[in-house]
Amino acid sequence: MHQGVLTRIKTVPDCRFRLLVLHHAGGTAQAYRSWVRHFPQDWEICLLQAPGRDSSAHLEPFREARALARHLAASTDDLRDRPYGLFGHSMGALVAHELAHHLLADPAEADPAWLGVSAWSPAHGPERDAPRHLRSDAELREIVAGMGGTPRSSLADPDQWARIAPVVRADLNLVDTWRPDPARPPLRLPLSVLGGADDPGMPPSRMAAWREHADGPVVHHTLPGDHFYFVGRTREVVARIVTDIRAAVPTGVGD
After folding, report:
1. Of 18, 150, 188, 255, which sits with the fewest C-beta atoms within 10 Å of its C-beta?
2. Is the model's pLDDT at 84 over the cut of 70?
3. 46, 43, 41: which is closest to 9 by C-alpha?
4. pLDDT at 252 > cutoff 70
């Protein structure tokens, strides 16, 4: 059922824990391949990918977070047959948050045991003069360059930019138009919040708002760096994630 959604670097039969990882806006699952080797050998790490890129480049990208969450839930139902968690960075954190709400609200679904959110907060920041996804190509290039995570050579190459731009606009549309549902209760699961101390868009003060959206233990990690604080310290970030998951799920995912 994975329909181009799943990248599984290594299949782990009878794995003790499964972690589903969601990528940032304009990104792909491939950006997180190097994370996999740092997790315990008996965990299975599944990199999820939104339509519109790589093997699913022929599919229309989603522009609405809850619709993408429903799509990912339907495409990965066979991955929830054992303890599992969700982790997302930036847009991936938004979608992981929506996916957790979707799964927790369905009594027929196995609940996630843990949620990790990186460099995104449900607390709104300052309003922008114009939504990012409606900016000119030149402005959009600068926005994407400022976010990091995309090589400037790709942004400068006309052919590569022609492939990237529609996906970037769709992803930023998804992020910029998202609004919280005031009728939903806080998430009832262990939550880890990770971010960079110098992230201008998601500073620690904004990340602290997660405590208002979770009804369970919340652990905060503020690391040196900006929006992509984990670059160059993947091992350390993964170690923090593993420690938090083991604390949240004390049975079956030990050393």
Report:
1. 255
2. yes
3. 46
4. no
